[in-house]
User: Fold these one by one.
Assistant:
Number 1:
Amino acid sequence: MPDTISLNFIEALSAQRNAANPAFMRFVTANAGSGKTRVLVDRVSRILLQGTLPNKILCLTYTKAAASEMQSRLFKTLGEWSVCSEDKLEKELESLFGKRQPVKDLSKARRLFAAALETPEGLKVQTIHSFCEKILSRFPIEAGILPGFKTLNDKEKIDLKKLTQNEIYQLIKGDSDSELCKAIQFLSYEKNDLIDSIFEWAISNEDKVKKWVLAGGTSKLADILDVSDGWTKENLLHEAYDLTDWNSLESKGELLLLGEDKLKKIGEKIIHCCNETNKSDAMVDYLNLLLKKDRSGPYKSLIPKGFNYELHDFFQRDNIEAQRIFNLHKRILSLNLLKLNQSILIVSKEFLEKFKKNKLRSHKLDFQDQILMVRDLLKSKHVSDWVKYKLDGGIEHILLDEAQDTSENQWDIIDALNESFIAETPDQGRKNPRTLFAVGDEKQSIYSFQGAEPEIFLKKISGFLKGNNNEVRMQMSFRSAPEILNFVDQVFVENCKLAKMFDDETVTPELSISRHMAHRTDRGQVEIWPLTKNLEVKDDSDPWDTRPVDELSKLSSKECLAKNIASQLKKWIDSNDLIYDRLESEKEKKAIYRPLDPGDVMILVRKRGDFFKAIIKNLKILGVPVEGADKLTLQNIIVVKDMISLAKFTLLQSDDLSLAEVLKGPLFSFSEEMLFEVSFGREKKGTLWKSLQAKRPEIAELLANIISASKLYPPYEFFSFVLNLELEPGISFLRKIYLRLGVEAKDALEEFLVQTLEHQRLRAPSLQYFVHEFISGGLELKREMSENRGKVRVMTVHGAKGLEAPVVILPDTTGIPKLQNDTLIPMFENKVFTGFYKNTKNSESIEELSNFKEAQESKIQQEYLRQLYVALTRAESRLIICGYQSKKTKQVDDNCWYKIALNAFEGLDTFETETTFGAVQTYGKEYENNNKDSLKKQNQNQNTLVPKWCYEVVKNQDKTRVHISPSKLLTDKKYKVPVNSPLSKSDYLRFNRGNLIHKLLEILPDVEQEKRRSVADKVLQNHNINEMDYKNKITSEVFEILDNPKFSEIFSTGSKAEVSIIGTTKNFGKNIFLSAQVDRIYFTDDKVFIVDYKTNVNVPEVVNDVPNVYLAQLATYRDLARGVYPKHEIVCSILWTNIPKMMIIDRDILDTTLTQLNSVLS
């Protein structure tokens, strides 16, 4: 056995070296864990060693995380080469090349790290979207766009979608007879939210809409459905009416009136149809009479034989009349289906045209635009040669990672870049050939929703290999234990699931028997737990149950399984269950085990739903450290909901629900009893706010301060104020959030604050408008979970792609993916795309479309199996498979993951152990006791080095540093400041006036001149300034400054408002830390002008009368600015807004003030 393992290992290393050889183009198919990233790093290293410049290498990966990991690994390798010993470097290069390298290559290898860092553009390890963005930035005119475009973010996409929707609706208002208007009316009648889902689909599938149009739109669907031009429902009904023998029917109806009540009713309905003057209504009623309610066909026997044999025969299912009416129904269905798809195409086209115009108008492109534009750029006859010629000088090697996830459009780009590589001849004088390298695993292709198909990858390999032997297969896994890989092979090879992953025509004999080889020799384990069933109780309802309505029942199978998983993990962690330490074992060249850590565990589900939430909740309840969800809608995150509830309450104090949510949230942490105590007994029309003021005045006072802040501050400053608000000494609201919700709330809070800043950047700040806009959006927050942070990771299989963990649990194994209603199903004829049709309940009854539906269902099942392969191969040492039984069905589907795993266990040597939740089947032996003993000895013998700093005396911290704001200097009794107190209610408006003037002078200079007054009105309105005289005084004071040519230089292009300068200065010394906010700064070549606004009613005549506090403020500004602009003269001035008047402060006066400040502070 050791000889076999060593031989397999040698073959695996040979395959890796072969793949990494830059002398040849290579297509590599690699099993999970076989070292794809290592091969990529090795190939790039060898390309660099042969003398290729770093910026000539283009390395494309699927995600930013993968690009970052590969770049980190590469720089780590090159960095180690630059400093390691000569012997070690020789061994590294020998391992890389498979043979000893010349001495000259050692010094070359040492220089690579510096070369990679110093190259202007550096190594191009990036996603294909980043690459396309750079191409368009370089060739914007050729691509037909303006230079300087930006990538559309999620928030901007939502805003543009809303804008385009409104434009569409405005368009149809003005033209009710248009094709678009009729299409929208038809779709609205079909389903309420159908139009919105079509808009969403169109945004994500622009290329599919184009292909649909190019394929002839719905013409092929019309042929399949046998629907002629000009057909309408009315026409079909009228035609059928004219073919009906109404006289004969009437006599049959009269005969039925002689029968029992049921037959009488049928007779009455027939006579009603005969007497109906409207042909369409008559036929609809007749159709309803003969067909079943579900419209699956005619009634088997409408009239019993015993009553009248002739009537029974006429109305039975197989009679010509019943079939004629059923065919009429099917023709109407076909017509409606065609009209539905015609309407979808019309609306999609119109929406996309307007959406694209809005993107270009806003100077933005989304990822899809960038891919399609670069594809067209490289395929266009007019400019492609020029673009490729310019690129050829910059790219010599292309490396493509995760090639199985590359879509057809992305492959078009790769193929276009590769054309010149293939066409290159040996006589072109190039020292090293230019190459394409692609590595992937067709079994891990799980991103069909982004256009990836494994068949595309397999066809690329097949086409590439014609006439040469450049495919490399990497089958040895360095990740998983032998038992894990044996189980995977049992599922996919022995039980023939591998062949069912792909279309029959793409499955080769080599692919169908492709097995895994294990490099590891330690023991692994695969467990399958019994299915968890719903607890049987007569009544699960509790009238006082206050759990959220979307939370699982305590007795549901999902909740029970989530509890079992949490309790079992807690038990393993608490009892120090052992796990194989792969990294340490590789380093020490022997098996090393360590206690299981929460970060070693990954729980994979198929989708984020109630079960996903239940797992995280139960782990938290038992105190098992767990990461939050890997992807969340920002608006649905609890901490964000708390922020929005607080904002809604401050805007409308009579909003009892929002106030109740605030009181129950982290800010006040009210219990149910405390909330009831405040709420109960209030007047009939009394609000919760009034009751709180009466019963808990201390809390009401704090909330009153928050309400006041909401009127003074824009959204970002308001929420920042709230988060930093100290409810008790040393405990801010932010800290209370972290104490209650955990530090994982940090990501959501930061993204929420980013959205407030984005709101302020794009428009006049308004808390009310921000709340309205934010609630109507649906921003996703994605959290990177590739790093092991010592917590259990619960994530989807898609999210886990490229990751690994010592222990993997698969609990979501009993569900089967199904083709959803409203899915657009592609149609093909002889493998040529001919269009789409929407899957609906009605379309299912149309036999002519069944082949297309079955093909799509087959694609879904194939990807379902590939997802299983990805899930199973994430496990390093231990794999646990479990599942729950649905409430609706007592049996799980034979094709679900759980049953597939159970069937695989039948072919393996397993044993059974009893647990608290039933008998568990296990494949693979447990770690032996001597492993635990050796671990104890290892820990006892290990010499733990205590860092030196542990023995050092802790130095006293320097507490002499003082933080001072310039506006607070020289404010003792000797220096009276002529400003109004914000605490005086009578002076509130005057104090607020100053804030508002500052705010307007900050915002308006950046607004187009003709829009300034309307923006000023909005700002004042948002701050609840409705008194007309007061409003006019403020605006006239501001515009007297802005419209005055004397002050134009202050607000010129390049000037900046509200500039923060923080730091220490020579004059004040290192112990005085200054924090300044300058109202306005503008620049010339040699001077910096600092302007401070003062809104005092009484303006001093001369500089000598300026209050010392203002002079001290400006002297400090100047001292700080000198550190930022050492080569400029700093000129300070005060702009008195009430007159208005600019007063430049002489530098001698500022010097004197500075001296005075030093004496006071010392």
Number 2:
Amino acid sequence: MKKFVSKIIGPLLGATLAIGIGVSIDSINSNKAAEVNGAVSSYSDRTQSTYYTSAFSHKVNSSQYGTTLLNTLHELMYDSHKSYNTYAELWTYTKETDYDIDNPDNIILLYSRQSVDGNENSNVWNREHVWCQSHAFYTTGTGAGSDLHHLRPASTNYNSTRNNTPYGVVASHSESNRMGDTDCYYTSGYFEPADYIKGDVARILMYMYTHYSSSVSGTSTYSGTLNITDIVTTSSGTAQAAWDLLMDWNELDPVDYQEMIRNNRCAYLLGNYNPYIDHPEFARMIWDDTSSQQAGLFFQTSYKTVNVGSTYTNTASKYGNVSSSGDITYTSDNPSVATVNSSGVVTGVSNGVARIKARCTINGVSKISYHFVIVGSGYTPKHTLNASGVVYTPTSKTTAVASETLGSETVTYNNTYGTSQLTKNNSLTLTISNFPKTISSFKLYMKSNGSAGSGTVSVTVGGSSYYSKTGTFAQIYGSYSTSFVPVDITNASASKKTGTIVISISATVNSLFFQKAVIDYSERTVTKATSISVTPSSISLTPGEDNFLTTSFTPSNTTLQTVTWSSSNSSVATVNRFGLVRAIAKGSATITATAGDGNGATGTTTINVVDEVTPDDPPAGDPTVTSVTVSPSTLNLDLYNNLTGNLSATVNGTNSPAQTVNWSTGNSGVATVNSSGVVTAVGVGLTTITAQSTVDNSKTGQATINVTDSTPVASSISATVSKTYYVGDVITSSDITVTDNLDNSIDGFTFANNNYQFTYSDASSGGSLTNKTFTNSISYNNMTCSLTVQVQRKEYDSSTAVSDEITRELTGVGTSYTSWNNKTSNSDAVYAGHCMKYTTNNSDAIQLRSTMTSSTYYSGVVSTSSGGTLESIVISWNSGTLDGRILSIYGKNSAYSTPNDLWSNDSATQGTLLGSIKKGTNTSLTITGSYTYIGIRSASGAMYIDSITINYAGGNNDAENLANFVMYEDATNQCLTKLDDAIEIFEGQTSSERAKFMTNNGYVISTARERLNAWATHEGKTITYKDGDYIVSSRAISPFNDIIKNDSSITIVIIISLIGITAIGGYFFLRHKKS
């Protein structure tokens, strides 16, 4: 659906609050559409604050009450009702008006308050006429019979149960009279909606009578006969008794957030509002037969939006038959969201919704009116009774696991074929013993084998049949599916069952697959009340004044939170079944609330009826605040080991003032405080936390917060690396992990030898690990440390490439699944596996499966000893393998034990998934990365393989490997033992690798080249390069060149030197003698 705001709010030129729910509510459901046929898009004069008093020719004014007010509302609704939807359009419209704020793709059902998929119309929900057609003049044509304000979505089952039973009071609220999992009750002659929707029903019936009854004077197009006694049944049978009951329901269940949203959405689509939702006080002003009741208070705007910290003024006026009255006072029912002062100025405190109540004594009767204030982003509605669910998933042929345990239930599972698949004549049973919840819905996730698959699905609950169906998968589910789909097996007539659940599935022709069972259950558990608290615990009233009593239950999760009310002295004060007390005459009476669950719990309050109070006196029972106490008064916090602390506030005063406060901090740089009084240290210092009463903003309490910091200071650091370096590698700071002596990881340190390249001086001859220490090379915050790493020379890799071929003959298995091992081929590798021989069409192939092939083993092939570095794997598929079957290839650098390792949830045991080979798509996989052990398993059912070829890589015949050969050792006289081999390796390389060795200036290759040149020069060898000869020129021998003279050479040099010295000496001796 298209976005509601983007399509509508522009053309309405800023009529934000009146259109639907305005910015606050559309922000909650930005993806809801409003582009429906018949929406009033050209009508812009719909600001709700003027709707009743100035927007139309018929206006509500302060002097109207009784029939006059009724007729005015009738004309106003006729004037503003610009679009009449059809009955068919309700399927679309309902998704706009009754959507669930928590889940906008769902809608809220009327009687059960369940949140269900809005697209499941006719299957899960249908269109409920709250005023039944059989008790009215209309059908489903345009007008009253399809009015969107009137029709509500309801469960198909519950709608059928209610049928056309009139509304009334059911004498016995027993389980046998309960409608399903709701709090609605019915008998043969009465249907009583749950307390949380009594007001919704009453306001819809008042709307229908006002708008469409021909008994109401005024203009009309779709009016007809509507008798209130046809739809509401009372013991006296009079119309006044029916209106009295609806007025009681209207006050018992006040308008909530969801109902307000719905009214505004309907008004956007149709043009007119339900006035009894905007102004519930209109009900008594019209239908109460006591003249003193035909007056009340009127908020011109029934809802306002405000940001946190902002204010607005919305005052109430006295309307109707007012003969005497007192001052109007204001209170908030949720001061943690919004507060109001004595002048009607409302302040937004936090995100949420509050009711601002105006109260005044008019004609000697206490009158109350209210409006909604939506602060910030508002809140989500209450009473949505969503179900919860448990998922049961098989993990093997004999086990299944549950996503949660609800009580003492146990789960058993048995599949005669595999974990989830059933082939012909196989079956499975999943048993949940003693399922403790009431089932609300039930789905099995299954799939078929292509366009085949058939069998029987049956379920018993508590020993009785719950569901059974036999046939093809298309008959069981509705169509074939090769993906898992939810098969709904919910049995509406048995939906309240509980007990042991047995699920049985059998396949009769071809494969069926079972993935999981999802059992949704009602959260309803029967918890009975142990005590009841009545609020207020005592109250003073004047004759004619009334007041609502409220109850709270212990435990707080009491299932049936209803009571019956009684008065000890009805000549002093009476009480109706909804807790509305009315003072009759001076005196005292005790009002008792008795729990409706039959457990005997009671609660009481004392009603003192006194003489009329003076106009200056505050209304009886209003709370006053004398002080606020914060505990503890001093709170010590520490940034290191005591970061948070809790404060509590006690609001002291008379008449039980609300214990809600607003918390604030004197210095957020020292400590902060949240709405629950939790203080969090921020910085060292002192500050004050203040608790301000929401009843009286002038009353506060304080606590002193002292924040210290005992965080230990590091005195030393240490450094490590997690790798071994080879000659030629470069070490950088990113390789190094530095921690302090408090085990804190250090970033931002300095490494004095960053980008150092390791040389052959750093590594011992022969490839042994050599410690290399960088002394005091790491520094951080005036601390230094040394770093020691290990360096070694790379050894020449002389290995050669080799291939192993695994065939059925190599495995030695027969026509049943068998484990085998110690099978070797061309390399040094040893393989093990679990498979069988595939013999169809006289083939001799290896057969693998993707499930357990016995109670102990999984199918697959692994290597238990290495044949070298893996290079690639090639599969020769047998023609019996279906296209699309997938073979998964795993690798690691430690030995596998059995194919079961490939099915482990531990990646170290299973190895790394290197890739897959898919029948009909590819036959080979090139392996990237260095792995020495291989694992092979089916990822999609049975498959048949003629041969598996595993290729191992040989040593790299490249310039680097030649350099490793030359430089691995520093022994003397290597030119005599290794030169010829080195030249042979060199001349066996490709021309590009030879050119790289002769020209690359990298440290490893250039150093090896220098040594090789020295060897060649000493031995007088010639290195052939490309098409010509490369003649090694003489050059200085580096410290890494060999000592190329042996002991004999040294002896000859000494002898020649002695002869030379003797000859020179003899020459000078003879010259001297001659002279």
